[in-house]
Amino acid sequence: MTSPRKPKLFSVQVGAEGAHVTLYVRRENGPYWLRWHVPATGSRKKHWAYKALKHTDLNIAMATARQIAAALLSSTLAEARGRATVADVLAIYAADVAAHQKGDGPKECKRRAALWTAFLDGARFVDTIDFPTIDRFVRERRAGRITIPGGKYTLKAEVTNRAIGADIEYLRAALNHATRVTRSSGARLLDRNPIHGYQLPKNKVQNRPVASYDRYLAVVKHADRIDPQRLFRGFMGSLKGWAGVCRRSARYGPLTSI
Q1: Which of 127, 211, 111, 117 is nearest to 163 (CA)?
Q2: Sheet containing 47-52, strands listed edge to edge, beginning at the edge strand earlier in sequence
Q3: Residues facing residue 23 across a β-bridge
Q4: Residues 18-58 pLDDT 10s
Q5: Distances (CA, A) of 255 to 204, 210, 246, 258
Q6: Residues whose CB is less than 8 angstroms from the CB of residue 70 and which lie 6 or more positions away in sequence, other chains included
């Protein structure tokens, strides 16, 4: 009598041949795992990489597998052409970093990746990005002239400098990551970050008015007149920085802001 055959465990390949990712389970009803070939780097030979997803949600597992497969394909294409494109850099950063952020991080990263793809064009070589390109992005983003095709993401008509700076910081992080990614030849995917050192736009800091020391003395005098117990004087003296700032004003001249 033959023993019953064990059920075949779930396994599926995602991505193009040569840059595919295998999604599988190690035991029935167990959590999903990912497996893919890592290209040779320098003296290190080609080897398998594994990732435990620690959940049983097939849709999320497939999405993660597609992201890694896209990053592998982008790295392979960049290796073949010898230059990295915007799509290459964003795909690799999404698979290696952005997809593993907590909360709404992955969703926000997808929006910013779509924003930069729409503005720069995914086929553009990243080594052609320069400071004037980012200056133009700041102007058009602030004016609300940038749109993301497909209707999935809608950009606000009015945007703060802080939000624009966050968008630029995302691109800078993706480019920095590309300088740490190694090709099969041992060379870096990107030699340098072309927007390193770019000054991010910032919101203007509103100056807070500070009373002069003479004003402080006048308020204390009035407080003593209406408060014979002089309780309010002690309260004013305990205000953080009040007396010190006013004394500085008396010594070095009136201060109008800090």
Answers
A1: 111
A2: 11-14, 21-25, 32-38, 47-52
A3: 12, 34
A4: 678 899 999 888 999 988 877 655 455 667 888 888 899 99
A5: 20, 6, 8, 8
A6: 15, 91, 94, 95
Q: What is the dihedral of CA 98, 62, 185, 171, to 10 degrees?
A: -20
d(CA 206, CA 49): 51
All structural domains of the chain, each given as residue ranges with its CATH number in brackets, are 8-62 (no CATH), 82-204 (1.10.150), 213-252 (no CATH)
DSSP state, residue 8: P
**Interval 59-108: pLDDT, tens:** 888 888 888 887 777 766 666 566 788 988 998 898 888 878 888 888 88
DSSP secondary structure letter of residue 124: S
Radius of gyration of the chain (CA): 29
pTM recorded for the entire structure:
0.58
Which amino acid, 131?
F
